[in-house]
């Protein structure tokens, strides 16, 4: 991997995660936007967004590039649906995102596009899938859990490695996602200020948790 790309990854302050369980998928993220390692740019940026009726996407990286992807992906999926007269699958949506990410990182630019993503959704047959898309356009289906390239992933992985089980229910996965995010926001300087947790099942996409972390002061005595 290019050395400049490695440096950019280290500047990606975020925690996003996806957990596959027996009833569906749970996706979650923090809300902090960091400007480098020294300044908090925003405290209420929701990094997991519903793109259409059946697709959910989380971003880790440059906010502007992520926001552009949130606009482009649903538009391209709608065009594909109109042309083919059938709804694109979750896999097709993930491959589209991977293709765009692949092209973006390889176009000459003063500011390269640095975005790692998680994309989940449910298909027309009721099956639920989760994919991880690297900043280089690589794509993998997730069959357990993933935390992409955010700075909080090392804290999330440590907890999930010990507590994840294949037969987790949606309720258990929500609780695990919250614990993982809380672990990250306590120690990672690039993550914090709130958490959002979503579920994807054959019934649809639902926001389960929406919490704000508010700093405060208290007397030691």
Question: What do these coordinates show?
Answer:
This protein is α+β, with helices and mostly antiparallel strands and 221 residues long. It has one domain (3-211): Glutamine Phosphoribosylpyrophosphate, subunit 1, domain 1, CATH 3.60.20. The protein is built from five helices and twelve strands. The protein has helices at 3-10, 63-84, 90-106, 153-163, 170-187; strands at residues 16-21, 24-30, 33-35, 39-42, 48-50, 55-61, 115-122, 128-133, 139-141, 145-146, 194-201, 204-212. The strands form three sheets. Strands 10-1-2-11-12 form a five-stranded antiparallel sheet, with helices on one face. Strands 5-6-7-8-9 form a five-stranded antiparallel sheet, with helices on one face. The longest helix has 22 residues, at 63-84. The chain starts with a helix and ends in a 9-residue tail after the last strand. Residues 4-11 have low confidence and may be disordered.
Query: How many distinct folded domains?
Result: 1
Biggest sheet architecture: 5 strands, antiparallel
Detail the poorly predicted runs. 4-11
- What's the level 1 CATH class? Alpha Beta
Superfamily (CATH H level) name = Aminohydrolase, N-terminal nucleophile (Ntn) domain
The CATH architecture designation is 4-Layer Sandwich
List the secondary-structure elements in sequence, H or E: HEEEEEEHHEEEEHHEE
Extended strand count? 12
Radius of gyration: 17 Å
Strand order of the largest sheet: 10-1-2-11-12
Average pLDDT, all residues: 90
How many DSSP H or I helices?
A: 5
Helix content range = 25-40%
| Alpha-beta classification | alpha+beta
Between the first and last Cα atoms, what is the distance in angstroms? 52 Å
Which percent range describes the beta-strand content? Answer: 25-35%
What general outline do the C-alpha atoms trace? Answer: globular
CATH topology: Glutamine Phosphoribosylpyrophosphate, subunit 1, domain 1
């Amino acid at each position: 991997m290019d050395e400049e790309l490695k440096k950019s990854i280290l500047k990606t302050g975020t925690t996003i995660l996806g957990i596959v369980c027996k009833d569906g998928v749970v996706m979650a993220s923090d809300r902090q936007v960091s400007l480098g390692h020294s300044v908090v740019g925003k405290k209420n940026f929701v990094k997991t967004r519903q793109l259409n009726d059946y697709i959910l996407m989380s971003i880790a990286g440059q906010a502007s590039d992520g926001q552009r992807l949130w606009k482009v992906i649903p538009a391209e999926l709608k065009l594909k649906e109109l042309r083919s007269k059938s709804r694109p699958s979750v896999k097709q949506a993930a491959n589209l995102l991977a293709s765009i990410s692949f092209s973006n990182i390889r176009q000459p630019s003063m500011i390269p596009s640095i975005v790692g993503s998680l994309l989940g959704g449910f298909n027309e047959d009721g099956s639920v899938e989760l994919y991880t898309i690297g900043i280089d356009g690589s794509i993998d289906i997730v069959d357990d859990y993933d935390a992409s390239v955010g700075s909080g992933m090392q804290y999330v992985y440590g907890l999930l490695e010990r507590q994840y089980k294949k037969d987790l229910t949606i309720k258990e996965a929500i609780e695990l996602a919250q614990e993982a995010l809380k672990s990250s926001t306590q120690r990672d300087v690039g993550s914090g200020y709130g958490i959002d947790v979503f579920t994807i099942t054959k019934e649809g996409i639902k926001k389960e948790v929406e919490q704000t972390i508010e700093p405060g002061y208290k007397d030691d005595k």
